[in-house]
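Why does residue order matter? Because the sequence determines the fold. Keep that principle in mind as you read this record.
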Amino acid sequence: MDYLWWYVPIATAPMLIAFIATVHVFVSHYAVGGGIFLAAETQWAHKQENQKYLDYLKKHAKFFVLLTVVFGAITGVGIWWTIALASPLATETLIRTFVFGWGTEWVFFVLELAAAFFFYYLWDRLSPRNHTIMGWIYALAAWISLVLITGITAFMLDPGKWPEITQAGTQGTAFWVAFLNPQFLPQTIARTGAALLLASSYVLFHASIFTGEDAELKTLVVRRSVRYVLGGIALAVIGAAWSGAILSDAARMAMLRAAALNIILGAGAGAAGMLVLLLLLLVWKPKWLTPVAGVAVLLASLGVLTAGEFVREALRKPFVVVNCVYGNQIHVSQVAKLRETGLLENGRWTKAYMAEKFPYVVDSATGKLNLDLVKPEDANAVGEVIFMHHCNDCHARTLGYNGLSLLSTSARKGELKELLLNLDSMIYYMPPWCGTEKEADLLAGYLESIAEPHPAAVEKKEGGAQ
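Structure:
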């Protein structure tokens, strides 16, 4: 409760994070898989002295550097900006826990940048041996970056024994316990596979445009690329199956009960099937690699990755960092205190705001907020303040993502308060109520004021009027 809230209308802040992060994932995985592809294929082309293939790989390397280094860096910074604003407590937790990991990742990121530029800009000036070495330096540095970041993102889904370690005060081992979490290895395997799969799709997309009518070159690119797709699919399936097999009970229940997740999984499986079909057709007839086919291959790959990312994010509910930070930026250890003394009372900014806007609720003797003094005409305004700090991180106010004006329809007054007081028990993927009963009453009143009328109640009223 030490941070201000960030209100993003309609989309909500988490969805803005999801959009920027997904775009970045499209590029960051290509940066890893594409690096492996370029290093291996350049090495092969040098050994075969295939100048035509080397000339094509140079064209692809330019596309690769522009997309991964330039655009990838922009979206990477964008993620940091948005998570710092939208999920400040979760971001603080990750930085404090993984400061060594982040620092190490930055070292390898700088090595990536240097190797990528040397690999491309010294293409014709380095000897074949040194050029190949430079390509493999980039590929290895990029893959190590993926490993380091995967340890952190996997921790958010399953921190393992880290909460117990930190509560016991044995901070010396906390980093490694957090990093080597149960989901680390399976997700590293899955993401490595996804990187190879996506890289091949980018190559085929690029080749569909830049190989022109050269049937020999097109055939070579298609048949060399497909090998990486097959390897990528195998690794992705193994990693995803392993990750799914060790999901927590809560995550498994979310997967089984959420219809949307099953639909998205089905869509991802459909995209994977479409991708395999397209690749089989292209291996059979490489001349069919037209720009339309290239776009289709790329979109199918992005569809598979998007489905996987969406499901992984959704499985964390009601947490941002499982068993540590709830989706409303409240630490699990704070809940009992907030329920006893109040959400607004314990927030550095909420208390200051209330004292400025509604000074009459501040008890002159104790300096604490007394919400029983809230005037009827101010009740909804105070309820909105509670909404912004308890609900805004996951719900739009009216229309938009999870808009509460539609989710709060109620035929009988008082139902919302009862729901709020029992959030986590009535809706298992919601965080617990983190305020006093009076705050629940004020929030319920605000939600009732913005709620769309219950359809059944409207029909009943209209029928009675007739």
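The chain has two domains: 13-318, 332-465.
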